[in-house]
């Protein structure tokens, strides 16, 4: 065409599409990024990534360190991440069903093992149905937008996990944020929310940064009084809290009063990946039609499904592993408190050693690694400013000797850095 030939003969002027403008924009972006990164380093909140060269477990190999390192910061609560039966089940699923589905669920991405796992999770939680996601972050991102409208209200604990916060941001419901575990504040906001069609109270079952457990009995009582449905994220409870490891709702005796549970397969239940929503069948049916992370994400890989399914089998066959957590948690918490440390939370295997200063948390964590103990300092923006800590996590596969060695290392490092007298 004549206009194409003319366009090709016309020299480019220094306009929006010129290379010089593109380079200028890139330089500006680089300057902004370098400023942000320098600010993080200057604040002492830079998060490095240590490289593990072995399987996940109570003892690991870490690049740059010699010998076995005791791992006290994994979400591997039941020690199933490297359990031989879990690994074997994953290998069997990989061999029989392949590496992946190359598809979302509703096109050609649903295998019988996906449906079997969903049914098994529903039985475990004593719910009607379950829907699988690539992660619990996706499950939290996908539920509120699909269910709640501008006619509804969502009431969320101010310290809920970031995935709940982000999921709520996506929905158009009227948003309330109540003070952390403050039931008077929740009641006041429930009273104000009576003008809306549906009311949902959303809370973590166990709060991952502080190791405290939501007052579900009181939340459920208020929700019944003000006709609200209860949503609980059980990522840091599924598998080990409650007599049979079903979570905080079982622990506190309110399983029949919690409407919706979101949780993960990536922590206690094998530690690979995956999340889920379990609850009323009508809700699960709606999520299959409307939940965007479900509709637009590939199906869980068969190996992940196989591992999670076997982890659930082990848990449902016996509660012995789950029950072993309590004594180990008490041992660590009591010994650390006796040494003079402040441990946040209550009776949860998440044991935050509160230090306050971000640099102190980072330096102590580095020195703990030199003593053969793998822990990580947490600071802003993961936790509020001035609330830096080292989060220790107890696993069912830690021995009493492992726990005692960890405490001894904390005492040495704490005295070195002035955290203990």
From TrEMBL:
GO biological process, one term: L-threonine catabolic process
Keywords attached to this entry: Acyltransferase, Ligase, Pyridoxal phosphate, Transferase, Transit peptide
Protein name, as recorded: 2-amino-3-ketobutyrate coenzyme A ligase, mitochondrial
Pfam families in the cross-refs: Aminotran_1_2
Similarity annotation: Belongs to the class-II pyridoxal-phosphate-dependent aminotransferase family.
Keyword Transmembrane listed: no
InterPro entries tied to this protein: 2am3keto_CoA_ligase, Aminotrans_II_pyridoxalP_BS, Aminotransferase_I/II_large, AON_synthase_class-II, PyrdxlP-dep_Trfase, PyrdxlP-dep_Trfase_major, PyrdxlP-dep_Trfase_small
EC number(s) reported in the record: 2.3.1.29
Cofactor: pyridoxal 5'-phosphate
Alphabetized GO MF terms: glycine C-acetyltransferase activity; ligase activity; pyridoxal phosphate binding
Enzymatic class: transferase
One GO CC term, this protein: mitochondrion
Residues covered by the Aminotransferase class I/classII large domain: 68-410
Catalysed reaction, written as an equation: glycine + acetyl-CoA = (2S)-2-amino-3-oxobutanoate + CoA
